[in-house]
Amino acid sequence: MANQIALITGASRGLGRNMALHLAKRGVHIIGTYRTGVAEADDLQKEIEALGGSATMLAFDVTDTASFAAFAEKTAQTLKTTFKRDQFDFLVNNAGNGLFANFADATEEQFDSLVSTHLRGPIFLTQKLLPLIADGGRILNVSSGFVRFTMAGYSLYASMKAAIEVLTRYMAVEFGARRIRVNAIAPGAIATGFGGGAVRDNHDVNAWVAQSIALGRVGQPDDVGGAVAAILSNDLGWANGTTFDISGGQLL
Known about the structure:
Number of helices: 8
Low-confidence stretches: none
Strand order of the largest sheet: 3-2-1-4-5-6-7
CATH class: Alpha Beta
Largest sheet: 7 strands, parallel
Structural class: alpha/beta
Radius of gyration: 17 Å
Oligomer: single chain
CATH architecture: 3-Layer(aba) Sandwich
Distance between the termini: 34 Å
Order of helices and strands: EHEHEHEHEHEHHHE
Shape: globular
Strand content: 15-25%
């Protein structure tokens, strides 16, 4: 995977950060995006460079579709000036946010926020970046275990992720002529700051979730970052249009 380039949205923290580090350890150069965490983005860039890799962090808001054309131009400039390339190899649509809202209480504003972040953003960002993705490249979308199993309060969020899984299959078909393969991952409970960090920081919540997972523990960021690096590698080069469950066997 040496000398390949991955663009990861939401790379400055959480799972996106871990994905970037795992790919960098395999020799992949990183273009990462961040929304507000400038210090976090700088820290990630320094950590990747300390590993001997190259990284550039770009400010980006996945909900602001009006900025996507300018972001694509900025990406093209970055490719030429920093990496001496015209195209990149991997797009990881990772940026997102969690939202807990029982169905009966959910508002249109909450719905619109989820659509903008988890559906409209990935769709039209991918569309804008397609000319910059190399033939034979890969796109990885991030779904959620909530599509397969249910928990009250996540109906809107899970609905967006279900749409992403369907979209992944259609992308795989339509981009097949360019040999771009498109897959998704569906992480289960992971010890990150997602949803306020309860799974990571609250011992009782962590223990309660762990008993629902066949392997007996909640996931760690490395469990997802390592999986992403493997899925994007040639080792899984014949996987296309599928969603990989990365949950340790949660609620089977």
